[in-house]
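Batch 3, record 17
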Amino acid sequence: MTPVEFTTYRHNPLIDPGLHLWGWQIPVYLYLGGLVAGLMILSGYHVLRAQWDRDRAHGHYVTAPLLSLALLSAGMLALFLDLEHKLYVWRLYLTFRVTSPMSWGSWILLLVYPALVASALLTLPDALPRLVRLVPGLGRLASAMEARPIFVQATGFANIALGVMLGIYTGVLLSSLGARPLWNSALLGPLFLFSGLSTGAAALHLLSHLRVPEARDEGDFGDALISALVHWLRPPEAGAEGHRKLEHADNSFLTIEFALLALFLGGLLTSTAAHQAGAQLLLTGPWGAPFWVLVVGAGIVLPLTLQYLQAQRKIRATIVPAVLVLGGGLALRFILVGAGQASAWTISLS
Amino acid sequence: MARYIMVIDTRRCVGCMDCVVACKTEHGIPEGYTRDWITETVRGEQPTTQLEIRSERCNHCDNPPCVYCCPTGASHIHERGGVVLVTPEKCIGCKACLAACPYNARYIHPDGYADKCTFCIDRVEKGLKPACVSVCPTHCMHFGDADDPLSDVSRLLASRPNHTLLPEAGTKPRIFYLT
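Prediction for the assembled complex:
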């Protein structure tokens, strides 16, 4: 006769964490945090390489710090909305818990803001010339920073270092929670970092299409909108060095992300039964279809192929790969957070 | 220093849920929530199947992941008996401890903080037993100091086969089930 094993257990949506733990707020926060980390690393690297000489063209990098500040603030808002005891949020900054990734994250975020503000100040005369004309003090501050290479270098280094910490932390936040076997992999940190880098490069790519330099200072809103739409649908100018570099960078990040994803799943599949069951949630389980279609297919393989063909000049360059990468990164966070909460150790009779 | 543990005799437990009611009454647990619950597991082949009824709650682990992941120190190990407790005034409701607990022993109280079994430390400090232990009609639940070799719990563990839940999770739980 076939052995039987069944367990009657509570199934209460009010108290069972797997049924109600984290909603949309945490995946959105992890996504925006990773995206900002990618933007910080890329713009920090650009600052170090360009030594921020205003006479040189910086293209889409000038708006990256301001965009990062906006996106990070939106992510922090999502994180705040997730808290159940919101009025006690200040408690995070009364202590530092070495063993808590969330405590590390809250302090890293506190350091990320000044680094982003410094970076934004440096780029402000190019990004928002009208604001600098209205508040001349900002322009003087930017010029003073620019005149001191040590400040420029420190800003570049700080953005790269804090970007790496922020990107890895978004993965470690999940991987440190041992009760959810799907998340139990040290590769989750690097995976989220490279996903953040690929989405950061895609965001810069998209930004370069959406920027409308000729309509920024003059003309009304309608002109700017029409100009933006035309610019958006138009392929980038031939020989645009920045676009090619971003395509190459994005392809490299996507390839590494793909390899890390394969290693992450391979590691789980060669681990305990609980970890194998966790991996199966993504491979063949309830999250299988969205994982293969949205994360692997539309989020990595398709943009990788399109960008490769664009780089080979076999197809026209469009914003499609960048949009796919951005969507794939969001899907990765939603699927991993959702499936991870459903993954658990199973209590059986000893 | 004391090290409080709970020993539950699964051969005596009938799953009457008096422990659940006692806990809810003692601590004024809101409707729909609970700090302890009954689990029944059946395993084996007919006609020799095994049934185990367990009263489950926070395991007050010696290696508590909920305490390690807490960003504010709200989850902590109490100085008396090593009991794992939550200070509501420090809890921000981030739910990291809920995700970290392999026993799903925590929930978010309607007032916004993480809540769970306290081993009735307020009663224990007055010399009383935890509410669930004191009402058990079959006397299947025992509470005491594992560091005292003469305590009931130490003698039961020394004399009867027993197991903990999810030892493979490495949390070193402090609720033992006699089999």
